[in-house]
Amino acid sequence: MSKVKIAMMVSGGGTNMQAVIDAIEKGKIHGEIKVVISSNPKAYALERAKLHKIEAVYIGKEQSAEEIKEKILQVLEEKEIELIVLAGYMSILDKTIIEQYKNRIINIHPSLIPSFCGKGFYGKKVHQAALDYGVKVTGATVHFVDEGIDTGKIIAQEAVCIKEDDTADSLAERVLEVEHKLLPLAIQKVIENQF
Hints:
single chain, 22% strand, globular
């Protein structure tokens, strides 16, 4: 079986992408990253891609929503992408992309969905909301992307206990460690079940 062609979509540092690259290099994911698409021209994830000789493309918000959609679709088609992984991608995908790649787009979110997710819940805001609410457990979730925000079918979750002295930063750090483990496992699970 040939390796599944993956596109990683990012906006920031790319530590989750790095965890996926590492897992691929260790043979834990039967796939290869064919392209990295960033919505941020300064994302360190673009440097990570370069270091691993992976093609990287910036498709930014100074273009119209229609242009962004068309450019993303063009890149995905050119690279014959089979699986799209959103790893800290801070933009909402156009519904045309979601329809065209139904059940082939996955996202990682830093909470136990359905808690602390949906519109406005991203980055440290998620962790602060968990602390403000007073929950004792949070975590990370990998899910399929559908037309809603963080509403797709859950692939994998892992819990993280909240400590009495946690801040949004300390909690984010511990959840991120879990994300780095969970995302590669979820990608391989999707590959085994769908390709």
